[in-house]
């Protein structure tokens, strides 16, 4: 895969990772507001829902640890990937980091 193709792929994945989760959360937020008790109740409503949330939480923590450990790499705006992971989720933060990392490689070349 070429460098340009990687850039576009990571950017497309970041866009999907932003739009798909928010397309579900924003309507819920507009309907219920920031009702954390209800959010928690819906998270643990079923085992499959709790499974999915636990998986996302562990993945998000893994992405944040990865970003903290990657200090040897010169990745511009790496903090945006951490913020994106914490505010949206790892489906946005990880491909955003990979995009920024590839962008940094391009600038070094």
UniProtKB/TrEMBL annotation:
Q: Which domain of life is it from?
A: Bacteria
What is the designated name of this protein?
Answer: DUF2834 domain-containing protein
Spell out where the chain crosses the membrane: 7-30, 50-68, 80-100
Q: Tell me which UniProt keywords the record has, alphabetically.
A: Membrane, Transmembrane, Transmembrane helix
Pfam families to which the protein is assigned, alphabetical: DUF2834
Q: Tell me which species this is from.
A: Deinococcus piscis
Cross-referenced InterPro entries, in alphabetical order?
DUF2834
């Amino acid at each position: 895969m070429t460098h340009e193709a990687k850039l576009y792929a990571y950017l497309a994945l970041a866009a999907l990772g932003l739009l798909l989760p928010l397309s579900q959360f924003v309507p819920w937020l507009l309907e219920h507001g920031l009702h954390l008790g209800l959010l928690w109740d819906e998270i643990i409503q079923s085992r499959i829902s709790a499974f999915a949330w636990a998986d996302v939480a562990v993945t998000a923590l893994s992405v944040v640890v990865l970003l903290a450990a990657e200090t040897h790499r010169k990745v511009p705006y790496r903090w945006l990937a951490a913020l994106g992971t914490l505010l949206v989720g790892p489906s946005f933060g990880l491909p955003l980091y990979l995009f920024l990392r590839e962008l940094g490689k391009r600038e070094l070349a």
